[in-house]
């Protein structure tokens, strides 16, 4: 008999094994085109997992998370624009600049809670969106073409399978690292803040420092996802940081199950697959997607992961 | 004779024309359980709020372990050994009972900016937490989410969280509030067992509990302390009987 926690761990492992085997399976089926779709799933999974850190464990509902996706992607695009092709420079810069942006936004927003936090995160996200629209040097509204993928010596990110596995490895590292983090001392304080912030103060913690640190970690990871996105599309436009995109990342996290990390991966798999296949069936695909999301939220409070692995894994519960 | 852990001198607080705390002076010895009783509206909660640092007095002094803490905020008093259990239960419902206490242990055990090691496997946090659960009689409920505890158990957990910070002085604001007779009896046992290991200031309406537990009792009426003495002295004090206890007889 497995406990729900180990069942959850096993389900996560199976999911990752399935994702690891996807490219050879698609090649065997003669459908290598779908590897690109898989990469998109992985990139958004990284973004959704990063959001889950502050949403599911920190109680911060961010409606501006796509901003970091955009910051990471534009960092790669702009470095390429100026002829810098080194992949390490690309990814380290994307992470560092996302971290700084998250620090600036977080310092001004994590003191607020509830609807105020949602509105402030939305406002900052849209500010960056309009900034990208207005800078005509980097394409403005039309977006910016990127000449080539980030160069990592012998590793060619232009090869879809390579990009897939690089994204996969980053996702695994992020999942593992965040799983350690949410169960560490730091993670316990963060989850306690979500549960009962006034009580956290009375036992002697200042919640602000913990929330801000989590916010910066989250933004940094999402920025790395943005750098991957730039490599996949070789194009970046303000649309990728529009608040509607933030909403999609939020939906993936909630759909899969908040406060589970791997739920965000499930959410990304389901959302992007549905988006792709439904949109080929009908241009009104959102009319199908919408009710599906409503059903999951209504009938599976803990998201799809709770349906799959038993209800009690969700939330900042057992340790 | 040991020096008092808490000394209150000439404490005054006014709300407009109302004197909520009127020249209150008393002291608590390091191993004493000192009860404060009084009719509704006597200013007990206001007095506790000043001791805890939630409210600043207009004048007077509060000494904790000999040091003046009159102007210090509540978290600074907590760091100097003042613990507090709240009138309204406030726990981390999603955490297990053990994790609730372990988090409070963590607050007094070095930096919490540690991102890698699993807190649930840190003996330095879990062992003291287990010892405290043992003390408050919740060992058998260690792995239950705190939200699923019965009311009396939550009150005991509340006490456990306060104890986890190893206070020298514990302020207990109506620890029996809302409890049935059985739960209240269990809380009395619990507090009786804690007696002697730390100082406590108890504000409570349950007179049986107060007279059973207290070493000394201070009686507060209209913001003024009219008497401080042993339970026997308090029971036989004519002024107290008239002002307060007399209501029952």
Short description:
By secondary structure, chain A is an all-alpha fold. Chain A is built from twelve helices and four strands. Helix content of chain B is 35%, strand content 24%.
Describe, in plain words, how this protein is organized in 3D.
The complex is a heterodimer of chains A (319) and B (249). Chain A is mainly α and 319 residues long. Helix content of chain A is 73%, strand content 3%. Chain A contains twelve helices and four strands; from the N terminus they run αααααβββαααβαααα. Chain A has helices at residues 4-28, 34-57, 66-81, 87-109, 114-134, 160-183, 185-202, 207-233, 243-256, 262-281, 286-299, 303-309, and strands at 144-145, 151-152, 155-156, 235-236. Chain A has a two-stranded antiparallel ribbon with strand order 1-4. Chain A has a two-stranded antiparallel ribbon with strand order 2-3. In chain A, strand 2 and strand 3 (155-156) form a beta hairpin. The two termini of chain A are 18 Å apart. Chain B has helices at residues 44-52, 74-79, 97-107, 123-135, 151-164, 181-194, 207-213, 231-236, 238-243, and strands at 6-15, 18-28, 33-37, 59-64, 67-68, 82-85, 169-173, 199-203, 216-221, 224-229. In chain B, the strands form two sheets. Chain B has a six-stranded mixed sheet, with helices on both faces. Chain B has a four-stranded antiparallel sheet with strand order 2-1-4-5, with helices on one face. In chain B, helix 3 (97-107) packs across helix 4, helix 3 runs parallel beside helix 5 and helix 5 packs parallel to helix 6 (181-194). The longest helix of chain B has 14 residues, at 151-164. Chain B is globular and about 60 Å long. Chains A and B meet through helix 6, helix 7 and helix 8 of A and helix 2 and helix 3 of B.
């Amino acid at each position: 008999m497995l406990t729900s926690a180990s069942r959850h761990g096993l389900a996560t492992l199976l999911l990752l094994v399935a994702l690891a085997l996807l490219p050879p399976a698609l090649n065997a089926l003669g459908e290598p085109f779908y590897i690109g779709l898989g990469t998109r799933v992985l990139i958004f999974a990284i973004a959704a997992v990063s959001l889950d850190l502050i949403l599911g464990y920190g109680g911060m509902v961010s409606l501006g998370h796509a901003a970091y996706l955009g910051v990471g992607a534009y960092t790669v695009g702009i470095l390429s624009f100026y002829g810098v092709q080194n992949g390490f420079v690309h990814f380290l810069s994307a992470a560092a600049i996302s971290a700084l942006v998250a620090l600036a936004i977080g310092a001004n927003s994590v003191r607020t809670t509830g609807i105020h936090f949602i509105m402030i995160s939305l406002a900052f996200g849209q500010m960056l969106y309009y900034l990208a629209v207005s800078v005509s040097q980097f394409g403005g509204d039309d977006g910016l073409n990127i000449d080539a993928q980030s160069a990592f010596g012998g590793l060619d990110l232009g090869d879809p399978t390579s990009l897939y596995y690089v994204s996969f490895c980053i996702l695994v590292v992020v999942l593992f690292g965040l799983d350690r983090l949410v169960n560490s001392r730091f993670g316990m304080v963060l989850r306690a803040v979500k549960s009962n912030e006034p009580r956290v103060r009375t036992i002697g913690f200042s919640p602000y420092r913990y929330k801000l640190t989590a916010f910066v970690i989250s933004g940094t990871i999402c920025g790395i996802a943005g750098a991957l996105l730039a490599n996949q599309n070789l194009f970046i436009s303000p649309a990728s940081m529009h608040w509607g995109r933030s909403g999609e990342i939020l939906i993936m996290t909630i759909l899969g199950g908040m406060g589970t990390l791997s739920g965000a991966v499930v959410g990304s798999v389901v959302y992007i697959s549905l988006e792709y296949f439904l949109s080929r069936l009908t241009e009104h695909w959102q009319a199908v997607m919408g009710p599906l999301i409503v059903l999951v939220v209504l009938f599976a409070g803990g998201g799809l992961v709770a349906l799959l692995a038993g209800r009690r894994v969700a939330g900042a519960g057992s340790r | 004779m040991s020096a008092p852990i808490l000394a209150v001198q000439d404490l005054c607080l006014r709300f407009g024309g109302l004197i909520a705390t009127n020249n209150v002076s008393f002291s608590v010895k390091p191993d004493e359980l000192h009860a404060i009783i009084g009719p509704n509206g006597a200013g007990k909660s206001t007095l506790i709020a000043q001791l805890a640092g939630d409210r600043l007095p207009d004048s007077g002094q509060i000494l904790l372990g000999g040091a003046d803490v009159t102007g210090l905020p509540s978290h600074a008093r907590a760091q100097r050994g003042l613990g507090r259990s709240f009138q309204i239960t406030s726990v981390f419902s999603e955490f297990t009972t053990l994790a609730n206490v372990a988090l409070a242990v963590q607050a007094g055990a070095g930096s919490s900016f540690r991102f890698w090691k699993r807190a649930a496997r840190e003996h330095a946090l879990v062992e003291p937490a287990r010892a405290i659960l043992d003390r408050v009689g919740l060992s058998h409920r260690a792995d239950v989410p705190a939200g699923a505890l019965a009311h009396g158990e939550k009150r005991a957990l509340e006490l456990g969280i306060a104890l986890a910070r190893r206070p020298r002085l514990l302020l207990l604001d109506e620890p029996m509030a809302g409890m049935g007779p059985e739960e209240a009896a269990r809380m009395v046992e619990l507090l009786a067992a804690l007696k002697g290991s730390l100082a406590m200031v108890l504000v409570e309406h349950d007179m049986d509990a107060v007279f059973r537990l207290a070493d000394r009792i201070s009686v507060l009426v209209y913001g003024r302390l009219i008497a401080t003495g042993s339970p026997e002295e308090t029971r036989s004090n004519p002024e107290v009987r008239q002002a307060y206890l007399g209501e029952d007889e």
